[in-house]
Design goal:
The chain is α+β, with helices and mostly antiparallel strands. It is built from 2 helices and 6 strands, in the order αββαββββ.
């Protein structure tokens, strides 16, 4: 399990250092990557192309993993992500679900983001007693 955690943290670090040459260390050649907005990248070639296309517009400022959960060939990571994209800074919480191949690389990765955190934490029932 520690190997998976180190692998995912190293993947996060690739975004911070902007070094896409290492993507092959993390993903299988036929990996599926689904972003939280539904965008899909099928295969390492498309994942590399997406990374390269994102960089001129964006910069990852922080990607802090809060915790991991593991079961069989799958892991989940809960995180907070902060970036600047086309001059606009944003921060949000999210979860990544990953399936790992027998050689320890990510074969499927799906991201989910808490949209309420993009602007302000939603607290719709502040006028209701907490008991």
């Amino acid at each position: 399990m520690q190997r998976r955690e180190k692998l995912f943290q190293a993947y996060c670090d690739v975004w911070l250092t902007r070094d896409g040459s290492r993507l092959g260390e993390f993903f299988t050649d036929d990996a599926l990557y689904v972003e939280s907005d539904g965008s899909r990248y099928e295969g390492l070639g498309q994942i590399r192309a997406w990374f390269a296309a994102w960089l001129p517009h964006g910069e990852v400022l922080a990607w802090q993993v809060r915790r991991y959960l593991h079961q069989c060939d799958a892991s989940a990571a809960e995180w907070t992500f902060r970036c600047r994209y086309d001059g606009v800074e944003s921060e949000f919480d999210g979860v990544t679900l990953m399936t790992f191949s027998s050689d320890g690389k990510i074969s499927c990765l799906r991201e989910f983001a808490a949209k309420a955190c993009w602007e302000k934490t939603a607290e719709p029932f502040t006028n209701v007693e907490k008991k």
